[in-house]
Amino acid sequence: MRLALVGAGHAHLAVIARAARLRKAGLDPVLIAPATFDYSGLAGAVLAGAIPRGDASIDIAALARAHGVEHRAGLVTNLDPATRTLTLSDGTTVASDLVSFNIGSTVGELTGTHPAVWPVKPLTNLFDLHGAVEIDLATDRRPALVIVGDGPTAFEIAASLIGLNERLGRQPDVILIGPDAEADWAPAGAARHLVRSLERRGLRRVRASVLDHAEGEVRLDDGRVLACDHLVVATGLRAPPLATTFGLPLDPLGRLRVTPNLQSLGDPVVFATGDCAAIEGYPRPFAGVFGVRAAGVLIDNFCATARGEPLAHYRPQAHWLSILDLADGTGLAMRGSLWGAGRPALRLKRHLDLGFVKRSRP
Fold it and tell me: What are the residues facing 322 on neighbouring strands?
């Protein structure tokens, strides 16, 4: 039975590592994904210059080879649900009996013509932004760095850009723009700590929405025009547009709707996990932890499907640990209503993130 793994997200990394178990169940896996995977948990550290880019990347081609999994480097552009045939960006096709999607998320676009716009997804944008800002800071320029968004990612990017300025001995000019910009997604004490610590380091927060942008500036809905040399888009995640081409049920954010078995509501031989999936009865935000935790159930259900056995349910946890890298040697750890900040939080984050990357490498 042919199993097509589309995307090398958190869950599929674990699936690849257990390819021998899949083959024992009668499955022949093929991975369709780019040759490298950039780990989101370390993107802020790379942007801030705290770790080299290579420390956040996994060689997917080497990982597939190490576990005997066929790897087709590229992207899927279409799925024919009737024949379960996948079309790749190079025009070739892959026929399959089972299909699993673990293709992550993306961000929406802003209207405008600014030449230096950096969506937070794919993560390579943030790595390239690091180089561009570093070049600016090496001159006499003091670039205006604008982040659009007020969620956890936006605040962590703001911290990273401030940290990059500090690392190079420059006074930061970093602005975070959002309708709220209060970090009210965090516990009250954690939000106050986050906002105060970043403002002490130079962050400016603007409560507004960006109407459009052009070279050197952004225009806000309250009539203000702000200087902007680099514009980072962190306005909220959604599923990649690819999901809309499958003809399968989607949620309002474009995610494939799946049962707790991780099967599509529209086709039981199509599975999905991670940010591109919405599990019926278990609303949850975009976070890599869910893909990691779902991997075991996903593998069990691949094998059960091949053997004609009952499938297991995945129940996402109600609370999970989230740690922001504040790019000053400290982190902000949160779990439910609990939180803590300081160097131990960042050490724990590095231990977890670098450990995940190390375990995922061949």
Answer: 334
Q: Considering the entire predicted model, what is its pTM?
A: 0.91
CA distance 126 to 304: 40
DSSP 312: P
d(CA 252, CA 241) in angstroms, rounded, equals 12
Using CA atoms, how far apart are residues 239 and 241, in angstroms rounded to an integer?
6
Spans in the chain with pLDDT lower than 70:
285-291
Distance, CA of 319 to CA of 330 (rounded, Å): 22
Contact call for residues 132 and 116 (beta carbons, < 8 A)? yes
Query: How remote is the C-alpha of 224 from its chain's centroid?
Result: 31
Task: Report how far residue 155's alpha carbon sits from residue 201's, in angstroms, rounded to the nearest whole number.
Answer: 13
**Which tokens go with 232?**
């980072």
Report the amino acid identity of residue 202: G
- Burial class from Cβ neighbours inside 10 Å (0-12, 13-18, 19+) for residue 59 reads middle
Give the DSSP letter of residue 327.
Answer: S
Mapping DSSP to helix (H, G, I), strand (E, B) and coil, where does residue 262 land? coil
Long-range contact list for 245-250, CB < 8 A, 24+ apart? 245/77, 245/78, 245/79, 246/79, 246/81, 246/270, 247/79, 247/81, 248/81, 250/278
DSSP notation for 154-211 = HHHHHHHHHHHHHHTT----EEEEESS-S-TTS-HHHHHHHHHHHHHTTEEEEES-EE
Paired tokens of 29: 């896996």
295-327 residue pLDDT tens: 899 999 999 999 999 999 988 777 779 999 999
DSSP, collapsed to helix, strand or coil, labels residue 277 as strand
Report yes or no: 177 and 210 within 8 Å, Cβ to Cβ: yes
**DSSP calls for 58-106:** EEHHHHHHHTT-EEEES-EEEEETTTTEEEETTS-EEE-SEEEE----E
Instruction: Please name the residue that has the structure tokens 């024919």.
Output: 80
